């Protein structure tokens, strides 16, 4: 895919990600639908396949999930530079695109979090601040368990029966809960079971 | 607003150990991020609470709640808060940079590789298996925090009811998170506010 990106296009992309940053309550993943609307449907800067693979690779790769945002910028840059085969100039544009989207998505939210948590810490003895922190605790526990559930459920696309997948998720949860085994062993076992077609 | 090094301290003395320097934060968060396949949260709990003991389980739960309701990626917010607590702005920047820098290069390499192996069924299967395991890891992170709720002002049973309600709303009813946080989080906080009356 080949596209032309003017400087005002890059600026618009940057602005869009700054905006999404402020809207990404509970993580950048919640703004994925809007990113799709903007990048694929409205501007045609990414193909559908490039968009979905950006998310999928970031899910499978080590590191925070927000890195999928950088991959989208990388792909926009590559498209503007004539594709990955076009050589170093395209790669440089890809890195530029990565910087634009990552800085855009990170800067507003981290700045706000930085000042808000400092305020909260200075006022930590206030009844309202304590009520907020303690009151959210059971909600957070519920959210964590639900996130694990949603992640596991979203994985079932293979040919193996669904209960294999749930069994693997359940056993993994049990092992992490009851033992202190290194998590990479579990992920490696999951990868091996997936590669031989168990899930 | 000027941070002085033991920055917004106070929380630090209650944990048995702490990071040595911003460089320690950068390196620790880099290694932490590189172990986090399909999300870093489970690793944060394992490394920060159980191994390094930079956070107590109570602090983890409180900080995570704050990181969750602020805009932006949760684990990045959490890294920022931990870094800021020990070394102010320098610590916050070091922790966030550690979380992002090396993983960004890894993911770029993977994106380039992916173009070659995307069609391979073993590769797709391996990704799926890792995804199932990472779901289990995150769920276990939540399960391990349940005992902390025994000391909660609302009482253990009420807390478990909130856990179940949130789980049902998100995992089964698929209600948008903003609403769940606003309604269930609002009720939980309001109720707690009444209970902790001086």
Task: Kindly provide the radius of gyration of chain A, computed on alpha-carbon positions and rounded to a whole number of angstroms.
Answer: 20 Å
Average pLDDT metric of chain B = 85
**How helix-rich are the residues of chain B, as a percent range?**
over 70%
Q: Which two chains share the most extensive interface? A: A-B, 102 and 112 residues
Number of strands of chain A: 0
What does the largest sheet of chain A look like?
none
Q: Name the shape of chain A in a single word.
A: flat
Largest sheet of chain B: none
Return the structural class of chain A.
mainly alpha
Structural class of chain B: mainly alpha
How far is the N terminus from the C terminus of chain A? 34 Å
Unreliable parts of chain B:
1-13
Low confidence ranges of chain A: none
Number of helices of chain A: 8
Q: What is the chain-wise order of helices and strands of chain B?
A: HHHHHHH
Please state the oligomeric state of the protein chains shown.
heterodimer
Number of helices of chain B: 7
Cα gyration radius of chain B (Å):
19 Å
Task: Tell how many strands the DSSP assignment of chain B holds.
Answer: 0
Distance between the ends of chain B? 30 Å
Helix content of chain A: over 70%
Produce the secondary structure layout.
The complex is a heterodimer of chains A (199) and B (198).
Chain A: H1 7-23, H2 32-42, H3 48-60, H4 67-80, H5 88-122, H6 127-153, H7 162-178, H8 183-195
Helix pairs in contact in A: 1-5, 3-4, 4-5
Chain B: H1 22-35, H2 41-51, H3 57-69, H4 74-117, H5 121-145, H6 156-172, H7 177-195
């Amino acid at each position: 895919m080949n596209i032309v990106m003017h400087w005002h296009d890059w600026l618009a992309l940057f602005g869009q990600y700054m905006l999404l940053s402020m809207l990404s309550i509970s993580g950048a993943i919640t703004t994925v639908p809007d990113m799709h609307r903007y990048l694929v449907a409205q501007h045609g800067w990414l193909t559908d396949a490039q968009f979905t693979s950006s998310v999928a690779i970031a899910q499978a790769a080590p590191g925070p999930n927000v890195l999928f945002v950088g991959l989208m910028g990388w792909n926009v840059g590559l498209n503007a530079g004539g594709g990955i085969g076009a050589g170093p100039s395209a790669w440089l544009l890809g890195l530029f695109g990565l910087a634009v989207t990552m800085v855009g998505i990170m800067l507003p939210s981290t700045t706000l979090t930085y000042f808000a948590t400092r305020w909260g810490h200075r006022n930590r003895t206030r009844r309202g601040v304590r009520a907020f922190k303690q009151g959210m605790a059971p909600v957070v526990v519920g959210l964590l368990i639900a996130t694990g559930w949603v992640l596991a459920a979203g994985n079932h696309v293979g040919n193996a029966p669904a209960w294999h997948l749930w069994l693997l998720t359940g056993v993994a949860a049990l092992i992490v809960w009851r033992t202190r085994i290194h998590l990479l062993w579990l992920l490696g076992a999951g990868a091996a079971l997936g590669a031989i077609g168990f899930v | 607003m000027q941070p002085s090094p033991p920055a917004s301290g106070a929380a630090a003395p209650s944990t048995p150990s702490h990071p040595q320097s911003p460089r320690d934060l950068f390196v620790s968060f880099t290694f932490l991020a590189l172990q986090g396949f399909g999300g870093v949260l489970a690793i944060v709990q394992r490394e920060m609470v159980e191994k390094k003991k930079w956070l107590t389980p109570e602090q983890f739960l409180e900080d995570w709640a704050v990181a969750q309701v602020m805009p932006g990626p949760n684990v990045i917010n959490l890294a920022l808060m931990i870094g800021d607590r020990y070394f102010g702005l320098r610590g916050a920047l070091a922790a966030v940079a550690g979380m992002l820098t090396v993983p960004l290069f890894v993911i770029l390499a993977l994106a380039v590789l992916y173009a070659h192996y995307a069609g391979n069924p073993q590769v797709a299967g391996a990704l799926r298996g890792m995804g199932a395991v990472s779901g289990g890891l995150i769920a276990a992170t939540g399960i391990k925090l349940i005992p902390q709720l025994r000391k909660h002002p609302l009482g253990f049973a009420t807390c478990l009811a909130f856990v179940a309600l949130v789980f049902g709303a998100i995992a089964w009813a698929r209600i948008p998170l903003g609403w769940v946080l606003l309604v269930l989080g609002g009720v939980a906080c309001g109720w707690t506010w009444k209970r902790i009356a001086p």
